[in-house]
Amino acid sequence: MGDSLELIGKRLFLLLSSSCSDGGSANGEASDGGEKKAGGGGVVSVGGGVTRDWLRGTVRAVSVIGLAAPEIVGEAGEGGGEEEAPAAAAVAADGLTVFVEFENAAQRCSWVQVYGKGVNALLVEDSIVWAHQSHGPPGSPAAAASSPPWPALTFRSLVDRVGLGSVVPVQFFGNGNFEFLPESKSLQKFEFDIDLRRPLVLEQPALLAAVSSWHSDFELQEIFRKGSYTIQGRR
Q: How far apart are alpha carbons 193 and 208 in whole angstroms?
C-alpha cells in the first residue's frame, strides 16, 4: 500500500460529479448500516464565484487494487488498454479507494475510488497555519487584510478536475469555515511549541482543545506510519 496508509485518519473534502452527487443515491448504501444524514456539502466559492457542494469526512480505511472494496463511489476510468504493463505506482493509484466516514452527506459511510471518473476533486488535510479569514469575495486582498490571523488546517489536492490551481484550501478552527485562499506568503506555519501559548489560543479553551486534539492525532499517525510496531493487548 505504500504511502497510501498515511491517508488513514486524515480529514478530506470531496467534490463529486453531478451524476454521483444528485440525490446522494449514487453513493451507495452505507456498508456499516449507519443512519442517513440529511443535508448537502459545504457550499464554497471557487474562482469566478462558482459555488460547489463539498462533502467532508474522515478516512477510516484504505484499499488498493487487488483488494476488493464494496460500494465504491466514482467509477474507475477505462485505462489505456494499449499499455500492457503500467508502472506499479500507477496501478496502485488507479485502484486506490478510501473508506470515508462523512459528516454532511446523505450517506454516513462509503468507499470512494480516489481517481475514479465520478470524483471531480479530493482534498486531504496537510498542516496547520496562521491565515486570514475572508469576509468578502473569496481571494479578495481587502477581505483578508481585515481579519486577524487564525489557526487553519490546510489541504492538498489528490484530485483536481475543477481548476483549483494554486489556491490554498483551508478550514479554520473554531467556526469551521472552509475557504480557498490565494497562494501567498501571508500564510505562516503554526509552531506548536510556541503558538499554543499565544494569548489568542489560551484565552479560547475550545480553540486550544481543537488544535491540541489535531496535533495529538497527527503525532499518533506519524508513529504508525514511520515503522512497524506490534500492538499487544489483553482480553
A: 13
| Residues 22-48 pLDDT 10s | 444 334 333 343 333 323 344 444 543
Partners of 150 in the β-ladder: 131
Q: How far is Cα of residue 179 from the mean position of the Cα atoms in its chain? A: 13
Tell me, what's the pLDDT at 40? Answer: 37
CA distance 10 to 226: 16
Judged by phi (left if over 0) then psi (alpha if -120 to 50, else beta), residue 28 lies in left
Instruction: Report the distance separating Cα 181 and Cα 154, nearest Å.
Output: 10
Cell numbers describing residue 116: 475514479
Query: What percent of the chain is helix, strand and coil (3-state, nearest 5)?
Result: 25, 30, 45
Are 211 and 198 contacting, i.e. CB atoms less than 8 angstroms apart?
no
Measured at the CA of 51, the angle between CA 44 and CA 15, to 5 degrees, comes to 75
CA-based angle 85:89:90, to the nearest 5? 60
d(CA 171, CA 225): 24
What phi, psi does 145 have (nearest 5°)?
-70, -15
Question: What pTM does this model have?
Answer: 0.71
For residues 42 and 40, give the distance between their C-alpha atoms in angstroms, rounded to a whole number. Answer: 7
CA-based end-to-end distance of the chain: 30
